[in-house]
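Most newcomers find our protein records easier to grasp once they have seen one. Sequence and backbone structure share a record, each on its own labelled line. To make this concrete, we reproduce a full record directly below:
***
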Amino acid sequence: MSAAQYEKFETLLDCLDHWAATQPNKVYFTQPFSAEKTVDYTWAQVADQVNRMAAYLQSLNLPEKTHIGILGKNSAHWIMADLAIWRAGHVSIPLYPTLNAETAEYVLDNSDSKMIFIGKMDELWRVVEKGIPTSMPTITLPLAPELKHAKKWDDIVAATAPTQKPVKRSKDEMATMLYTSGSTGKPKGVMISFNAMISALRGTSKVMSFSNTDRMISYLPLAHAAERAILETGSLFYGFHVYFSFGLDSFIQDLQRARPTLFFSVPRLWTKFYNGICGKIPLGVQHVIFRIPILSGLFKKFLLKKLGLSEVRMALSGSAPLAPALMSWYRNLGLDLLEGYAMSENFAYSHCSLPGKVRVGYVGNTYPGVECKISEVGEVLVKSPCNMMGYYKNPELTAQSYTEDGFLKTGDMGVIDDQGRLKITGRVKELFKTSKGKYIAPVPIENRLNGHELIEAVCVTGPSFSQPFALVMLPLEEHKQVEQNPSEAARVESEMTELLNHVNGQLEAHEKLSCIVVVKDLWTMENGFLTPTMKIKRNVIEKNYLPKAEAWVKMKKPVVIEQ
């Protein structure tokens, strides 16, 4: 499709109607209903279900632009519910399925949500259930838990004719609110317009090549700006096929079914994939094979096939910095791995590495229409056509988030090279001061540690200590072995000591780590140590571990394995 045709789309509803008319029988969604059973939904079928649900919502005579929640794991009907809410003239409020009851209740109350769609939840439902008012009108999507007071999507669609009066949405209206994951403080409602969504897609189309022949798998939370911007809105704009993952246990099987040509992931998962390969084929063995011309190409194809990424023509990492060592490893395999940088507040439209212009360690150039500069204190400032309408019910915070000349304060520290590429060096609020009065930026040190096969997640900390130190979480298999086998613990201690010496050799005197502490507990979304996109919650980790840290540092050991 030509750029001129893309310009005709004012909202994503226009995109849905276009593809339903031009490729009605092409499959849009492939949805697993079990590890063995999948159902395909064509563009015509998706549009039909959306129009029927929109008609039902209109029949409720809700006030114009009512806020309606969507809670559930990713599914075809999650996106259909989003579209139906828009078509009926309302605003969607996505909630992460990993929220606890208190936070879910807060988001529904703060957003003024009047009803809710509930989708696939599995074991997460018992955690969040008490946060959903029983008096709130509820529609359950296929795969949702059984709720006595709720109406079912399938029943409504079967009994309702498609809307004859779809609401024409203005591009300047609010389409959705994205609640930040709340890695610090209460979640904030980021108001995003239809125009921000379409502007991001038009801009991306000028520098990247996507088409309706592409395939993508949906597994990162749709409540997050990145999955929403790349997969949901991208598939609607370009008309490509979306596969959904049934769950972590079947993820590799789902990947092999989808054979994605586009793949988006976050550093934590890129690290898990890397550690999984290195756990079976050590780096030393890989390097030997890479140096043998006749075997190198075959071996790289073998590794990509093992990862389920053999047909990926463009891969993207985002939401947190990716260790340069990992970026280099993937690109050496032949994966065109690009790194993006943005935030909920600009609907994931800010910077991206572009094919042929990649500089490892940098998140790339600005997208078309985006301006970026560095403030006097080193903060990254961005002006994007996709900048938020503001924080819901919080005009003071909205005003504080912008400079006088209209640039969004990202809260990130960065530098820009002579080619205009941005490098993120840390968070403004993450800087901490040692007892020697020196400021430490933890992220660059963490990036030097990440990429080692024994590290799945790391947090560099140490405010008020003489030197910083690192808290490290092992991959699950290594974690089990260390618990069960003293000789394995000794091996981990030896390798970590070697890593510590290597990294400290690259740091300034005030940055050198006093020790590495291997923690005994796993950091997960469920226990609150990770955000829904698997970034570490630094404040939670520090609150949990800093009280114990003095005893570890006093041991004067290079590596401490928490008992």
About this structure: The first strand starts at residue 27 and ends at 32. The CA atoms of residues 265 and 317 lie 5 Å apart.
